[in-house]
Amino acid sequence: MKKSPLQVVKEKFQSKEKLVDALLGSMEKTGGSSKEELRKKLLAQSNRKLLVLHQREELIGKHFGSRAKMIDALMEKNKGKSGKEDKDYRRRLERLSSGQLLDLARRLRLVKR
């Protein structure tokens, strides 16, 4: 029988608070919110969503090391014939969420599904 998200959280992290702390440690600060505001928002999320976020952050860390390095890899893949970097494209990528960037990396075959 498949375990519930609560069971998985308790098995891997012992509590929701520890999962949120692990997420805060791996996530880069995005937007204008402080760590405490982000922690409060994450604690309000479901266990399932938190597990998905944690899995995504682990995948980004494993394949690229950080969000910035993932953006660099996407830029390298999209240089074009001239070999020059498009600064507008970089700014657009930096505005995307980590999930959207990961989806783009999958479509460009930088990450296996």
- The total number of structural domains is 2
Which bin fits the share of residues in helices?
55-70%
| Biggest sheet architecture | none
Strand content: under 5%
Give the averaged pLDDT, no decimals.
88
Shape: elongated
**Which structural class do the helices and strands define?**
mainly alpha
As residue ranges, the low-confidence spans are: none
Give the beta-strand count. 0
- Count of individual helical segments: 7
Radius of gyration: 16 Å
Distance N terminus to C terminus? Answer: 24 Å
Task: Spell the H/E element sequence.
Answer: HHHHHHH
Descriptive tags:
67% helix, mainly alpha, 113 residues, single chain, 7 helices, 2 domains
Q: What this model shows, in words?
A:
By secondary structure, this protein is mainly alpha-helical. It folds into two domains: 63 residues, no CATH class; 48 residues, no CATH class. It contains seven helices and no strands. Helix 2 packs parallel to helix 4 and helix 5 packs parallel to helix 7. The two termini are 24 Å apart.
